[in-house]
Amino acid sequence: MSGTEKTARDAHHAQEPVGAPAPAGEGLHARLLVERGSFRLDVALTAAPGDVVALLGPNGAGKTTALRALAGLVPLTDGHLRLDGAELHRTSPESRPVGVVFQDYLLFPHLTALDNVAFGPRCHGATKAQARAEAAKWLDRMGLADHAGSKPRKLSGGQAQRVALARALATHPRLLLLDEPLAALDARTRLDVRAQLRHHLAEFEAVAVLVTHDPLDAMVLADHLVVIEDGRIVQQGSPAHIARHPRTDYIAHLVGLNLYRGEAQGHTVRVDGGSGITTGITTTEDLAGPVFVAFPPSAVTLHRDRPTCSSARNLWRCEVAGMETHGDQIRADLTGGLPLAADLTTVAAAELGLYPGAAVWATVKATQTHAYPA
Ligand SMILES: Nc1ncnc2c1ncn2[C@@H]1O[C@H](COP(=O)(O)OP(=O)(O)OP(=O)(O)O)[C@@H](O)[C@H]1O
């Protein structure tokens, strides 16, 4: 898929939060219903060829279960799984046109990189010579031709990840599944490998589904995010749309926003400020009915004394509940008039003499808030 097509689709997704409709018969059409003890997964996924879908969610949300159900490693309790018009859930896992890259790559330690990659085509019926020729081609594409004879223990984390990806792609899958593809890498390697993986996924012509905890991986690698909490989809759409319009606390926290749900009347949104006390947030949007209001912690200004000449329309009396370093900033968690997170520099925190329990006034300009229908 070309960059232009992806950009055009991003723009489309930004306006269309329920994205990724796949043309009938093509791509992935799945409704995954899986019961595992008391846990129940129920998610519907559709993706067109060329789409990269990221399943994002907290621990235990069901992401891996969904991926394993797509791979055929966990049976569906109910639902369906169609890929390019074929019913996959009636096909054994090994004969599905599905490639899987596991979190720890699962490379065979006694085989060379070439034979690890050749293993994929071999399992799909290629002769040894055909499989090795195919493997050599893929290693070359991954920039690993010089490492064809290396055993996995001689490979760096990033190289091992590419061998695992080459092994999955060498079978020409119509569905590529990646389970936390960057989780095993250190922060520095991760940056490079993320960029390479993005490149390979952009060239991949079938459907790719990846599971990640990391919002940055999801935002960089995927065209379409599916956020799963407690076995259900709570939100889906383009990364840009979700970052700007979070609909749950988990997503708001991921993208670093304060998020409130309330009732709009013109430029005022009435929200629960905690302990059942209602407070108003002034916004620039003129809305009516149930809405979300979001603003970043950097939009909050803190004062020890009630400000008398602030132009900010929003003012709350709060108390510092906790403080922690956040990058090169201090993030203060506040309770009181409105529970919120505020970012400030270390110098500002020292000048304000902040400490847990300190009373502060928090101001937020209406122009820094963003309200949207719930
Ligand atoms: N083999 C199993 N038998 C029964 N329940 C299971 C099994 N594996 C996972 N579960 C349960 O299924 C639920 C979803 O787990 P899953 O691993 O799919 O979540 P996840 O979103 O991938 O979490 P994580 O990010 O921690 O890997 C959890 O409640 C888990 O306890």
TrEMBL record:
<keyword id="KW-0813">Transport</keyword>
<keyword id="KW-0472">Membrane</keyword>
<feature type="compositionally biased region" description="Basic and acidic residues">
    <location>
        <begin position="1"/>
        <end position="15"/>
    </location>
</feature>
<keyword id="KW-0067">ATP-binding</keyword>
<keyword id="KW-0500">Molybdenum</keyword>
<keyword id="KW-0408">Iron</keyword>
<dbReference type="Pfam" id="PF00005">
    <property type="entry name" value="ABC_tran"/>
</dbReference>
<keyword id="KW-0406">Ion transport</keyword>
<dbReference type="InterPro" id="IPR004606">
    <property type="entry name" value="Mop_domain"/>
</dbReference>
<keyword id="KW-1003">Cell membrane</keyword>
<keyword id="KW-0410">Iron transport</keyword>
<dbReference type="InterPro" id="IPR003439">
    <property type="entry name" value="ABC_transporter-like_ATP-bd"/>
</dbReference>
<dbReference type="InterPro" id="IPR050093">
    <property type="entry name" value="ABC_SmlMolc_Importer"/>
</dbReference>
<protein>
    <submittedName>
        <fullName>Molybdate transport system ATP-binding protein</fullName>
    </submittedName>
</protein>
<dbReference type="InterPro" id="IPR027417">
    <property type="entry name" value="P-loop_NTPase"/>
</dbReference>
<feature type="domain" description="Mop">
    <location>
        <begin position="309"/>
        <end position="373"/>
    </location>
</feature>
<dbReference type="InterPro" id="IPR017871">
    <property type="entry name" value="ABC_transporter-like_CS"/>
</dbReference>
<dbReference type="InterPro" id="IPR003593">
    <property type="entry name" value="AAA+_ATPase"/>
</dbReference>
<dbReference type="InterPro" id="IPR008995">
    <property type="entry name" value="Mo/tungstate-bd_C_term_dom"/>
</dbReference>
<dbReference type="GO" id="GO:0005524">
    <property type="term" value="F:ATP binding"/>
</dbReference>
<feature type="region of interest" description="Disordered">
    <location>
        <begin position="1"/>
        <end position="24"/>
    </location>
</feature>
<dbReference type="InterPro" id="IPR005116">
    <property type="entry name" value="Transp-assoc_OB_typ1"/>
</dbReference>
<dbReference type="Pfam" id="PF03459">
    <property type="entry name" value="TOBE"/>
</dbReference>
<keyword id="KW-0547">Nucleotide-binding</keyword>
<dbReference type="InterPro" id="IPR015853">
    <property type="entry name" value="ABC_transpr_FbpC"/>
</dbReference>
<feature type="domain" description="ABC transporter">
    <location>
        <begin position="23"/>
        <end position="255"/>
    </location>
</feature>
